[in-house]
Amino acid sequence: MRYFQAGADAVESLSFTPNGESLVCVDADREQQLHKHRAVHWLSARTGEQQRTLNLREEAWFRSISYAADCHETGQAYVSPNGLWVAVQRYIGDPVLLDLWYAKTGEWREIDLGEHWFVVEGVCFSANSDLMIFACGTDGGGTRELGRLDLQSEQEVPAIDFPGYSARQLQLTQDGQRLAALTYGSVFTTRISSWTAGEVNWTKLDLEISDSASLRFSPDGKELAIVDGPQLFFWDCESGAVVKRVIEGDGINDLAYSPDGRLHALGYEDGTVILQERETGREVKRYDWKIGRVASVAFAPDGMTIAAGGDDGRGVRWDVDA
């Protein structure tokens, strides 16, 4: 077990890079709101030492973005799985715009939302980090389209229509064949292979979930977990069946699947991390590393290590013994 210091504020999200060598952590401003992100940190997964930090309001951003002088608030930061791309929401009054940073060049660019849209909500990347999808629309009208950007060519891909209201979180399966969108009280999913002639077939799940719910796909893409405080929903992507589990405790902030799909790691509001069997929900191990509220958990690619981020900038990584 080894502690690390990612930053001064809550480690709101963390992930291992595909080679398992780095941990990428996003910190949030605890004094404001947790979805207001301040910096991204790259750490050695082995030692916890800082490799790089990106201040989301750095001078390079101010010099590169046309509306920087009018922007007084940063929203969420989304990091690609390979850790090379960072997309950041920017608030300018009602508009919520999107900037993209590339690690290899250190350069920022503005994302073109199109002629009619001026609000960005959820953002996600493909597992191989070659595609970014972002929800765009208007302040009063909610999400109208899902924009797509090919990150290899940095060229736009035709957007797709979205049938729900306010796609505030997006998730792709690892094989890139299924997309899920979380709205207020609903989840929409679609198979990419079902898109024909510009038409997209969506499945809607109506669930009693709060505004703080979150989505996670299983590694094989066959199951979608919806995390909402003390309750978990598991949707079978093939049969459409939904299983609900109610968990004891102060509520769950994050869930991570082990790479083989056998286990879940659950990060709790009370500071504990629990390992449970995916199939049965049986508790396998319980940890309390004294890092405060656990906002984020992640498995290393080899499945042998877990990392968790706390609310004071500290995190911990440890070997799985289950």
Secondary structure topology:
Elements: E1 2-5, E2 10-16, E3 22-28, E4 37-44, E5 50-55, H1 59-64, E6 73-79, E7 85-91, E8 96-102, E9 107-110, E10 119-125, E11 131-138, E12 142-150, E13 155-161, E14 169-172, E15 178-182, E16 186-191, E17 203-206, E18 214-217, E19 223-228, E20 231-236, E21 242-246, E22 252-257, E23 263-268, E24 272-277, E25 283-288, E26 296-299, E27 305-309, E28 314-319
Antiparallel strand pairs: 1-28, 2-3, 3-4, 4-5, 6-7, 7-8, 8-9, 10-11, 11-12, 12-13, 14-15, 15-16, 16-17, 18-19, 19-20, 20-21, 22-23, 23-24, 24-25, 26-27, 27-28
Structure description:
The chain has 322 residues and is mainly beta. Among the domains are: 2-51 and 268-322, no CATH class; 56-172, 7 Propeller (Methylamine Dehydrogenase, Chain H). Helices cover 2% and strands 52% of the residues. It has 1 helix and 28 strands. The chain has one helix at residues 59-64, and strands spanning 2-5, 10-16, 22-28, 37-44, 50-55, 73-79, 85-91, 96-102, 107-110, 119-125, 131-138, 142-150, 155-161, 169-172, 178-182, 186-191, 203-206, 214-217, 223-228, 231-236, 242-246, 252-257, 263-268, 272-277, 283-288, 296-299, 305-309, 314-319. A 4-stranded antiparallel sheet has the order 1-28-27-26, with no helix packed on it. β22 (252-257) and β23 form a beta hairpin. The radius of gyration is 19 Å and the shape is globular. The two termini are 15 Å apart.
